[in-house]
Records
---
Amino acid sequence: MAVQAIEPHPLRLRRGSRSSRVVAHTWIARQWALWSRMLTPLRPLDAPRGRATVWDASWPLRREPISVRQARRLVTGQLAHWGLGHLADTAELLVSETVTNALRHTRGPLRLNLRLCGSRLLCEVEDTETDGPVRGVVDLDAEGGRGTELLDLLTDAWGSVRTATGKTIWFELRAGEAGRPGPAG
């Protein structure tokens, strides 16, 4: 019967050895990577997101029904500015749905973000509620409750992510090639 050497588990290394210092350093590096997003300063939702670029736009929205119309105008204007007018109808409908849901089902401030990443348009609606969207069974003659179905049908991807301030509902649309930004406005 052959006897095999069993190496100690990395966390059971002798205290003070070089190997234990390396393991401790990598553990700290992993923990830092996991928590780094939580340590960055938070921008309140009633202010634009801090890292606006030519291909990144952000707007705070008031908790008023008129904010849905404002969000639609902001999105269509920004898409025209980016040369992506062909996405305006779909994006306008989906932004209207996500902002309306945020106004109906959450409290606190809201923020609308648009970002063009290569050939993808990312839209986010941030709010202060941690619970994600709930998919329900809807009657054929119901007036509402089809938001998740619209997201399923019209987007390439969508989801909900918890954040330090609440959650973000996001969706992506295939943008194709972006045009050059037009005049500021």
---
Amino acid sequence: MRELARALGSGVASSSRIHDAFTKPRLPAWGLLDVLVAELARRVPGGEPAELEVKRFHDLWDAAAADTSPEVAAALEVAAQVAADGDPAEALRLGTQLLAASDLASDDPQRLELRQRLASWRGEAGDAQGAAAEFEELVQERTHLLGYDHPDTLECREELANCRGQAGDPAAAAAAFPVVVQARIRVQGPDHPDTLTARENLAHWQGEAGDPQGAAAAAADVVQDRTRVQGRDDPDTLRARSRLATWQGEAGDPQGAVSAFADLVDHQLRVQGPDHRNTLEAREHLARWRGETGDQEGAASAFADLVRDRTRVQGPDHPDTLEARDGLAHWRGEAGDLEGAVVAFADLVRDRTRVQGPDHPDTLEARDGLARWRGETGDLEGAVVAFADLVRDRTRVQGPDHPRTLTSRHNAAFWRGEAGDPLGAVAAFADLVNDQIRVHGPDHRDTLDAQDVLAYWKKEAK
């Protein structure tokens, strides 16, 4: 034991701690076992390479650790089911209580798994920035315990990149994913489902960062490879087709998106059935793109059918049902029922506040719709006040540089001009353009839109 302690180096592990690792019935911490296995493996003449032995022992340790606390595993599955049923905030509460009550060691895999689930649920509950901070810590710990290329580390790195994008920095997410993709190719191979998922996420954030054409091209490659590797009917392939159709529309081909989603809905009905969540999601995308092609009444009708079916299948308070109601309210307004849109958005704001909380991004988004349609009905001052309040709350909750905060500032400035203050609109848009350039760059579509509207209000202010 003393020889091993000297070999590991000063301050790594005492001889008594090493002795306990060999003799005590409690599973030793992985950090200690990691260095012990590597040191012992190097002493075996003609034995397996140390890194292979470390991996073999870690797989064994994972299996042993999974049985250390069946009560924790059972409670974690209960919380996971709550999240799957559409209540990530409640899952976060249950998981936080479980973490506080457990006596698992800091490097116990169950504890790390629980913390990873908590970070995911925090993001799903609307706190993308908090989730990103937690994933950043997890990446550091998993890298230290498991190594840079371990699949669990890669998963945390991927989650971290997604959360950064959801927190309002799609460029950072798009920049992080190529590294993740290359690591997955190196560790798991180019055709592993996790590698294909990483490529799919890279395409998504590429589009969100302002390159929808590049996103569509990358998504098309993913669909081709998923079809070859996993088959045409695999749920992952169907999801990739949904992403491709979305970016096809965002790249300027809404009619192509309608055709692609119509084919996907037919395929989903055959493979997964009419009440499957993925089928309902494909119908939602199809309805949206019908509206984008100019068929606003068709979109509103399709969303009304979808709200009915989501309410029946998922319940009235499920986030997906609330999202479908958002689409219905929007396309009612676009189809000419302005007062109906205001009433629908007011009801939705009330229900989102009750179910998801006042600061949830979806609640803020519903307030955006309500403010906009109040302005469209002629309540210009009401729209100005509502958007000013929304800018204040988005700045507090999401930060001043979040894309949705900047969008709300755009809307607030626009309705200020519509309400009879063109000089105020000019000043607000001038500030917004400077911030859009700083955050997104001079060629981003949001920057260009703000510059166009600034020019319009300059003309109106003369």
---
Amino acid sequence: MGKIVGAAFLSHHPGLMQNEELRKLMGAGEDSDLIPGYAKIRQKIAEVKPDTVIIFDTHWFTTGFHLVEASARIKGNFVSAEMPWYLFGVDYDYKGNPELAHHINDAGIASGVRVRSTANEGMHQEYATINIIKHLHLERLGISVVSASCCQNCRWDQFLPAGKTIAQGIENSDARVLLIASGALSHRFNNIDWQPVNPRIFHESNVSSPENVASDKGAIRLMEQGKHGEIINNWESEYKKRNWEAFGGHYLQMIGALGGAHCTAKGTVMSDYENARGTGNVHIWFDVEQQ
């Protein structure tokens, strides 16, 4: 029987893939706190010992189905179509877990939830997956990675049963799985000619609006308390208005896999809350086995 051994909500923004000199330049002399935050997450990974990581990828948009990657090996050289001058030339070569992906596919068919697996050698990967793999050293550790998409033509509440279905597929396998929601909280970009409020580009005052900062910090507090049901209950009235990245599909699928509104996994904040082009970013770890 498979098992979910941990979960994390992580930032993947492209600025973190730049060299330390440039990051410190953007940070008014200090690096982003998300960088040492990755080291803390790596320590947690060493403690829970997953053999597979499922990354809920906020850049992999699908239509008609929630999909999981089922290839045995994924390799290539990444160039971002979004910002090719800034994120390019990233080689990747990592193991997938086709067996787990097929169990998830079967769970989708059995449950009637539109979750399926796909394997296509010509499909490129997204940086919401690749950046996480690189910062967590998953290639070096030999940990398998399965990307999961965010379906763009479903309601926000339909991400929850998708996550539940993925959890059923995990249970039907023999995998030890770490879930990662890869993306931001509020995801409203600053305008192209915007000028920083604070010279440290990562500072929270540079997030797109004070209202988004307040909302994001409220959500972080609820995650720390394990009150995911309260976030879900307030999604329509509060968090949907804040334009979480990919409709919040990364967080909602992860929490759906952990029990949905009944999930009480308490989060440990592993970094400062930071800005990235107006979006709100943070690393949070959840000890799911202590629920």
